[in-house]
Amino acid sequence: MVGWKLRPASMADVEAVAELRAAVLKPDLVRLGRYDAQRVRQRLRDGFTPAHTWMIEVGGAPAGCVALRPAKDTQWLEHFYLEPDLQGRGIGSAVLSRLLERCDREAAAVRLNVLRGSPARRLYERHGFTVETEDEVDVFMVRDPLPARRWPLASAEGTRSETWPVGRPRLAR
């Protein structure tokens, strides 16, 4: 897998992300008969919130973005785009895993919508998302947080418990 990192987004990133969105979504939107070059970019500009968005960098250069927007009892995964030539290399899966671990720690469900027929749906299904509902254009998916267990951890005072997501026990410190 190619090395990557996340950095907080800023308003200076909005145009690059709008162009990336247009490139990534074009094949699916054309297939669905919904592609409008201006609209696809403007919808990103209208919904871009740097406080909830990270840029994905590969080799120090912007290569994608992802947003987690808080809502009541859930997080919405939005604007998850990766340069087409970097797709299929494990970067998207690794980024998604990191964000889901954060949501698991917060016991937050994660919701998203993906275009019907998009290959991205398989990525989301591999990470535990299931279909809630769908319409002629979008598939709405949800992933409940992994249940937490209490794992005993050693401390100077003896044993104490902390909550960790299932499948990720911590060794005694």
TrEMBL record:
Gene3D superfamilies recorded: 3.40.630.30
A molecular function GO annotation: acyltransferase activity, transferring groups other than amino-acyl groups
Name of the protein in its database record: N-acetyltransferase domain-containing protein
CDD domains cross-referenced by the UniProt entry: NAT_SF
Pfam short name (any one): Acetyltransf_7
Alphabetical list of InterPro entries matching this protein: Acyl_CoA_acyltransferase (IPR016181), Bact_Acetyltransf (IPR050832), GNAT_dom (IPR000182)
Domain of life: Bacteria
Organism: Streptosporangium roseum (strain ATCC 12428 / DSM 43021 / JCM 3005 / KCTC 9067 / NCIMB 10171 / NRRL 2505 / NI 9100)
